[in-house]
């Protein structure tokens, strides 16, 4: 494998060392927690995949530069520098975006014969570095487990659309996700050992591609400590990935509603 693909493995921990030595010390803060539950509904791009609706728990915790809980795909993240306008961080998390994801809370699967005997990709362990500045954010996340080095770069802009004195806020998030060939092949491709011509699953080789997404988010305070959070979004699959024998839809759709208690 080329040296270029291995560079992020060295880059991510190196950045952590550099900025932890040179950034200002963040003010010590007490632990802050959020816990709640809600429902999520997803229509994925796989052939004949039913819409999946699941109840989901929610939890996050933060103290100073540390964050625990889902945060841009990271389960644990550390901020090397953070103020009101800018944040520079690194994190470790999981990524599981293939068919028949191990981390899915639903057992509903496609009944299309193309998935008969299909070997779904394993859950990825990832490391990430990123920053946010005002409305703009950028993150590079790379797979750490298995042989491949699947990489995804997410660039997003979050625009405030409406805010009311009651605390009601409406935001739009526009994002582009660049995925290297290792990632697209892992999720959408069909390797020679995974082909089955009898169910119309030939070998399918991918390249690096870009997906685009649009999300609308709303939050409304029910009390001083309780918040109602909602979102709905659409992701447009790259044209070449739509040709995969596994794919039956041009877009994926999702919606979520959560009630969160802060303490």
UniProtKB/TrEMBL annotation:
<protein>
    <recommendedName>
        <fullName>MipA/OmpV family protein</fullName>
    </recommendedName>
</protein>
<comment type="similarity">
    <text>Belongs to the MipA/OmpV family.</text>
</comment>
<keyword id="KW-0472">Membrane</keyword>
<keyword id="KW-0998">Cell outer membrane</keyword>
<keyword id="KW-0732">Signal</keyword>
<dbReference type="GO" id="GO:0009279">
    <property type="term" value="C:cell outer membrane"/>
</dbReference>
<dbReference type="Pfam" id="PF06629">
    <property type="entry name" value="MipA"/>
</dbReference>
<dbReference type="InterPro" id="IPR010583">
    <property type="entry name" value="MipA"/>
</dbReference>
